[in-house]
Structure prediction request, 459 residues.
Amino acid sequence: MLKTRIIPCLDVIKNKVVKGVNFRNIRVMGNAVEMAKYYSLSGADELCMLDINASYQKRKTFIKTVESIAKVINIPLTVGGGVSDLSDITDLLNAGADKVSINSAAVKNPKLIRQASLRHGSQCIVVAIDGKRHKDKMRVVIKGGREITKNELISWAKKVQSLGAGEILMTSMDTDGVQNGFDSNMLKKVTSNVNIPVIASGGVGSLEHFYLGHLTRSTGLLAASVFHSRKYKIKTVKKYLINKGVPVRL
Amino acid sequence: MKKKVIGLIDGQSGNIGSITKAIKDIIKGRPYQLKIIKSHFNYSSFDKIILPGQGAYATLMSNLKRFKIIKPLKKYLENNSSYLGICVGMQILSNQGYEDKITKGLGIINGDIKKFRNKKLIIPHMGWNTINLNKVDTIITNSFDKRDFYFVHSYIFQNIKKSDVLAFTLYGQKFPSIVKKGNIYGVQFHPEKSHKHGLNLIKNYILKS
Prediction:
């Protein structure tokens, strides 16, 4: 039976894992390579790392960090943040990423999804979608939620699937950072309209939230703070889920 | 003592970083050497060949043709030499693949590569899933039975003889996750991404066969 994946997410600047909402109050949580190694050893099913300050001068250090991480883990690695064109994707795959996640660039230029999946295969192209409710509609947002696009969430999710995305990383900006749980309603809408894997992101604060995330038919559950702050170990989450009857890898 | 030569084929089908690293770690301090195969090669100078693959069947086949790898590889396999195909590297052992268009394969293990039958499944089959052994051998030992490995694929080996299937996995249907014919092995999952059990499998393949 296919297992539900528990995926710690590292928000990275250069080689440090940071925490901060919309670039404010940024706190260093630790060294990215050390933390990646720790998560790989302690039972993470996959690792996600995002360059949250993808500026030109910091990019080189970030890519070096991807290389170092790829060398010390032996689970799949998804890398995103600031991916703007095909050459960025190639650079990250060459650095050792197994999958690359595209966000704003896909919204601005949807053809990029098709080009990237034709060149590298759908299995390594993840489209990250940030969703937010706006005037009773679910819309796609970019720039950390500050810019609301004209794309309606569900039609965008269907479109990225038809363009060749292998997976969707779905973050609700209505629940992200608040630790009140995943946005079940938004996630269910997405998973019932596509048949590629969906990773749920945004809002985990308790063990039960992981279980509720699983019920949305998301096959990956992503979390950051609860792991970085050592509130929960990955094993703790998995044992909890097994007791709830959720298939996970122990 | 003469070193055994392991060939790792770079078919430009996904990156070979993880598998390269895994092999290097295993053979460190042991009488083996690793050579990356990127073009025509002398098939008699290799003791083992590993071919990892990702993405489409047709793409890997056409890359192997373009890089002039296909002929020596076919000769190598027809001699029943030791081989480990990973994901698409396993799929191309079949007669043909049905991804995008019908593409002729290497024809080493009878069968076809077709999409999962159940239309309601989430595709690709992506994540950790269990392998169930039909039988064991020196490489695929009992210790791998019921272990989880990392899969990412949309197509599976079908119409294969049961005797060529070493292990199967369930996802909407039963499908072969390890195939074997003589000294030729194929795994549908990615051992190089499958943490310790995956590394043990690669280690067994290199050291025990």
User: Anything to note?
Assistant: The radius of gyration of chain B is 16 Å. The first strand of chain B starts at residue 4 and ends at 9.
